[in-house]
Amino acid sequence: MVTELRRDLGLPATTAIAIGAMVGSGIFILPGIAYAAAGPAVVAAYLIAGILVLPAALSASEMATAMPEDGGSYVYVERGMGPILGTIAGIGNWFMLSFKGALALVGGVPYLVYVAPTLAEYILLIALGLAVAFTVLNVVSTKSTGGLQFAIVGIMILAMGYFVIGGVGGISPAQTAGSFDLASEGILAATGLVFVSYAGVIKITAVAEEVKDPGRTIPLAMIGALALTTAMYVLVVYVAIGVAPDLSPGGEFVPAGGEEVASIAYAADAALGDIGVAIVVLAALLALASTANAGLLSASRFPFAMARDGLAPPQFERLSQRFKTPALAVGITGGMMMVMIATLPIEQVAKLGSAFQILVFVLVNLAVIGFREGAVENYDPEFVAPLYPWMQVFGMAGGLIVLTQMGTVPLAGAALITVVAIGWYFVYARPRVDREGAVRKGARENVGNRAIEETRRLFESDETFDVLVAITDDTSPAMKRELVRTANDIGRLRTTSVSVVEFVDVPHQMFAETHPTVSTEAPEWLNGVRADGGSPANKGGLQYRRIEAEHPAQSMVDYATYEGHDLLVMERDRADFHKRLFGKGTDWILENAPCDVLLVDEGSDPAANDHPGVNDVSEVAVVANRGPYDPVKLLIADSIAEEAGAGIHLLQAIPADAPESRRETIESYHDRLISTLTVPTRSTVIETDDEITGLARFVGDAELLVTGVDRTGLTARLLGRPGNRLVDSVEANAVMVKSHADRKPGLVQRFLMDHVFG
Question: DSSP per residue over 685-726, as a string?
Answer without folding.
Answer: EEE-S-HHHHHHHHHTT-SEEEEE----HHHHHHH--HHHHH
